[in-house]
Amino acid sequence: MDFTGPVELWQKEGAPGCPQKGLPCSPDSSELVQECLNQFKVTTTQLRQIQASLLRSMEQALTGQASPAPAVRMLPTYVGSTPHGTEQGDFVVLELGATGASLRVLWVTLTGVEGHRIEPRSREFLIPQEVMLGPGQQLFDFVARCLSEFLDAYPLGSQGLKLGFNFGFPCYQTGLDKSTLISWTKGFRCSGVEGQDVVQLLRDAIERQGACSIDVVAVVNDTVGTMMGCELGPAPCEVGLVVDTGTNACYMEEARHVAVLDEDRGRVCVSIEWGSFGDDGALGSVLTAFDRILDQESLNPGAQRFEKMIGGLYLGELVRQVLAHLAQRGALFGGCTSRALLSPGGILLEHVAEMEDASAGTARVHAILRDLGLSPGASDAELVQQVCTAVCTRAARLCAAALAAVLARLQHSREQQMLHVAVATGGRVCEHHPRFLGVLQETVKLLAPECDVSFIPSVDGGGRGVAMVTAVAARLAAHRRLLEETLAPFRLNREQLAAVQAQMREAMAKGLQGEASSLRMLPTYVRATPDGSERGHFLALDLGGTNFRVLLVHVAAGGVQITNQVYSIPESVAQGSGQQLFDHIVDCILDFQQKQGLSGQSLPLGFTFSFPCRQLGLDQGILLNWTKGFKASDCEGQDVVCLLREALERKQAMELNVVAIVNDTVGTMMSCGYDDPRCEIGLIVGTGTNACYMEELRNVAGVAGDLGRMCINMEWGAFGDDGSLDTLSTCFDARVDQASINPGKQRFEKMISGMYLGEIVRHILLHLTSLGVLFRGQQTPSLQTRDIFKTKFLSEIESDTLALRQVRAILEDLGLPLTSDDALMVLEVCQAVSQRAAQLCGAGVAAVVEKIRENRGLEELSVSVGVDGTLYKLHPHFSRLVAATVQELAPRCAVTFLQSEDGSGKGAALVTAVACRLAKQARV
Ligand code: BG6
Ligand code: GLC
Ligand code: GLC
Where the protein is mainly located, per its record (predicted)? Predict the structure, then answer.
């Protein structure tokens, strides 16, 4: 055993010697000894108080209480689950801070097979005193040098090594590989490290060393390594306890109880940092005079008071203080002292452990005392043994009280009557001290009788656990890279968006001129917005969005009143024959008329028909092609108004007076225009997407006349059908397109609208699963089901208030077996897809507003856009992103977005009302 130790950690030294006249041992020496030993007794009542007080501090820290600062820190780690036992690979583990002045380097091989363990290779390096107390860079350079020396000695292949850093000091972690040192504890005090990311310091030092490429992928507290390396047993191992140079524990807490985390499902490992318990004075009643002196003479006076009663760095020192005190009072060693007895750090944990071990016999105690320069008398060995026992028993009992607090916390948060749990134990005090664990276990039983606790020694001094965490971290980092690669094509920069805007402008101009263009730019024959003088009752139909609606619209002096009913259009009808579809529409109208008492009346009717139509007048619209989920036969190329009339005839119903057929964008613009005359653009982002706007008639080639304006239905969903968007299109867009009922068509719409975003996300999730990044690589039948991932899930998942809990609930409902890492990645996929959609939409709006501004020769344009559609209205960030993109790409236009409240049926009725008013005026 190595008995050389950090003598210099304590600075004072006394003068050794004997009383002048070699005093015989005083007769009351055993009384004096007892008096001292009594101070180290901690009653069960005191233990219970410590247990309760620590539990309170733990709970205060969990709730994020700032003032007064709780006595323990409760630092969340980024370890969220205990190991599966399936991790595998080779890892380098660096261990700093657990065991005194030593640095351990290990090569750990995880086999991924339960119970099959390969002995790690390891080497220990002694850290010189001046390095422990010198500049931080020197310490990390030392570490990097030892690491490269270790790797040089083994022909292990040194490229791309994954390293786990076991760092036994209090740190704020912000990632598995990001950890800021709060303060040094135990025997370290290197300058320039507190407040720094220790992983970065290590990486920098490795780079300076320049030996080989090592990837530092994880950093963990030593307690976490201890817990994570625990062999699987009957009870889950959810606590890691370390009693080495210092002491601390970690345990698995419910994430929802950790205020600083935005996570309300699952568990997270929390490092308690219980060494600082009592720094607020809570340990007053159990502190002895020896504890006070020890604290004053330590590197960090006033800090880590609990640790200083338990940790191995301090036990030898406490024994030395007591023995020196007794010797100086003549109760031991004939009143003689020695240099070692009076030198701080002169007695080490190893001395104490050996002297206390009764099986070694008193001869061994004598030998050790003589090594320490003392001349023990006949009864001294026994008394010294009693001192060692008292100091160590107190340590074990205090440690038990702290552990009992953790168990109580676990039991409470798990709401279990009887807690079955395994505690992984590590550190030299637990491992080598003869009685420590025994006393600890016995006391835990006394303090936490309702907990069934098994104690399991850690494997490879926690090295295996660190390797486990490193394996998980390496896997997660690789997954993150794959996720980033997958999502990169969805992240559009300003140049790409400006190019979309420019292409759109060009396609608009060509479409208006009747040249080949993916934008049809259809004239709508809507030339004027309502002037407020329109009156009357109108019928309206609204077909083509999520719902089919029949409406009765009353336009009066006081405003517009609407009565409407929603009817469903089954997919079989939308994709059946045209006759079936229009018969169904007529059935709905007849039903509505009957319910509203309108049967037999022929009210003027406005028909919102949200598909591309070539109009030759307001009441004539030839369906060019179906879009979205519609594919009823024999309709394309037909006048929709005629199809409706024929159906009325077939049903022998009364003729309807169809005055206007309008696109939903137009209906939306008119509806919003009723309240805001600046509304000259209509935008839909729902099942499909499209826009219309007021264009100068002189620019519209197909319509006679040059004066005034006409609303143009852009049919921008088809933008890019000529291949102009191909550079932005991803393989996922291609898959969605190919599986749709109109491959090659509506390419812009398929990147933006509600009918497709869920499908894009589903295809990305399938891809990530096939790479093993998501759902542990398990393909599920549910994810392979078309349209299972609804676009409304994007809105729900991305909603800030619902957080990851919601993601998980949604995915679990879909039968997807996800971890919390999966939930985060799914959220990022949704964000990337919806952000691209909103930005593309914004680029389109930017093209439109700039066109209007230039048409009018204005420096600045102020204009409103009427918007409708479930995606735009329900998604938490979509509207904001559209507006931001427009502002970025069209800075000279002040654009206000108005959400349509009443649907486009109201607008269709208003178009009808205007037409009726104009017709009436013409007749007069
Ligand atoms: C409705 C309009 O409010 O929004 C419809 O009345 C329009 O005309 C629809 O088609 C678009 O949104 P979605 O999400 O229903 O397709
Ligand atoms: C000290 C450290 C802590 C560590 C413990 C055991 O208390 O602050 O992080 O876990 O020692 O080594
Ligand atoms: C589709 C239709 C279009 C409609 C849009 C929004 O793109 O072709 O006419 O405006 O969906 O519903």
Answer: mitochondrion
